[in-house]
Design goal:
Chain lengths: ~210, ~170
């Protein structure tokens, strides 16, 4: 085969291939999925009380001993979820972003820990779904958390991630540990080993 | 076209580019032994490499400027390698200067390939990037995940593979 014939064959083949792929995508590419009306993945929240400062990685944590803000919002189904510092119950608050790969690894591990009966009855575990972005990976968070079997309350943050800001979030996943008086015992940005979470939970459960 | 369709289109084009790049590298010994094939690839290498670079640049600009995906730090480093290729290879193609295309384009493509490979590794194994995501744009998260494995750095990796193959094998001096 001559050089010219090879060049023509390659160029022609590429043109046909690219045109075919484009046609395939346009006609069969599921173009309507972007326009589907989905249930809300962010919801209004009401926050009162002093906001926690950033600095969760500092020693000592500037928020240690502070009362956490009171938050009233709802879960993915619209049922009310409250973070109340005055309800007398210690809390593990886990802030997650659906697109964060570390949250995607942390949530199933925590759920497995809960399934193992390790969460003390005296302690509440609440996930806060925040920083939601429709164009980011692993959307929507409701489907993701359902897929990992998450069965603890989920508070859905608003479009501005107001709850995350009120708790001084600096990175995902983000933990805030609250004692029975509603005061911050500790905070952590990033994944934590399950034995650390287990130890904190048991510590919170012991008055 | 919707974002979903663009994702699919770019993913398929990336797979074609990756297959072509690997194919050129694998077929290099046979191409060198066949004068018509060698001459044909020599004529096509620089324009095709430019086409891949231009399509890659268009794709990255679509994602950042139209879809609104903020580039992370490693995305910017890959852009630094890819965007100059569009100009360098266009000039080389117009001048018929394979030598310049090869010796200035291939190093850029190989540097970009290394960054894209590292970026894709971070996405595949997020624990390598630490244990936390920044609230803005961590390099370990995926804006796009077609077929479960084609992300934006994978697309860049495919583009750099094709460009490097065309310039190293196709644009070598006879």
């Amino acid at each position: 085969m001559s050089t010219n014939k090879i060049v023509l064959a390659v160029v022609g083949g590429l043109v046909v291939l690219v045109a075919g792929i484009t046609a395939l995508v346009v006609f069969l590419g599921g173009g309507t999925t972007d326009d589907v009306e989905a249930p809300p993945e962010t919801r209004p929240v009401a926050i009162s009380g002093a906001r926690l400062p950033q600095g969760s990685t500092s020693t000592p944590d500037p928020a240690a001993g502070m009362l956490v803000p009171t938050v009233t919002g709802s879960d993915f189904d619209g049922d009310t979820v409250t973070i109340a510092p005055d309800d007398g119950r210690p809390k593990l608050l886990l802030f997650v972003a659906h697109w964060c790969p570390h949250c995607q690894e942390e949530a199933p591990e925590v759920q497995q820990w809960v399934n193992g009966g390790n969460l003390p009855e005296a302690v509440d575990l609440i996930a806060i779904s925040t920083s939601v972005s429709r164009v980011r990976d692993n959307y929507p968070p409701s489907t993701w958390l359902a897929s990992v079997g998450w069965n603890s309350p989920v508070l859905v943050d608003d479009d501005e991630s107001s709850v995350a800001q009120a708790f001084g979030l600096e990175a995902f996943p983000y933990w805030v540990f609250v004692d029975g008086e509603g005061r911050v015992v500790g905070r952590a940005a990033g994944r934590l080993p399950m034995d650390t979470i287990d130890a904190v939970a048991r510590g919170l459960a012991t008055p | 076209m919707t974002l979903t369709q663009f994702n699919l289109l770019f993913a398929l084009l990336a797979l074609v580019a990756l297959a072509a790049g690997i194919g050129v590298f694998v077929a290099a010994p046979f191409i060198r032994r066949s004068p018509p094939a060698r001459q044909a690839l020599a004529r096509l290498a620089v324009p095709l490499a430019w086409l891949v670079a231009a399509a890659s640049m268009a794709g990255s600009l679509y994602y950042s400027e139209v879809a609104g995906f903020t580039p992370c730090t490693l995305c910017w480093y890959q852009r630094i390698a890819m965007y100059p290729l569009v100009v360098v290879l266009a000039v080389a193609a117009v001048r018929g200067d394979r030598r310049t295309a090869r010796w200035s384009g291939a190093p850029l493509a190989l540097i970009g390939w290394g960054i894209a490979a590292y970026h894709y590794t971070l996405q595949t194994f997020p624990s390598l990037s630490g244990a936390a995501c920044s609230p803005t744009v961590p390099c370990s998260f995926r804006w796009v995940s077609e077929f479960g494995f084609v992300s934006i750095p994978f697309m860049a990796l495919s583009g750099f593979t094709a460009i490097a193959a065309l310039l190293i094998v196709g644009a070598e001096e006879s």
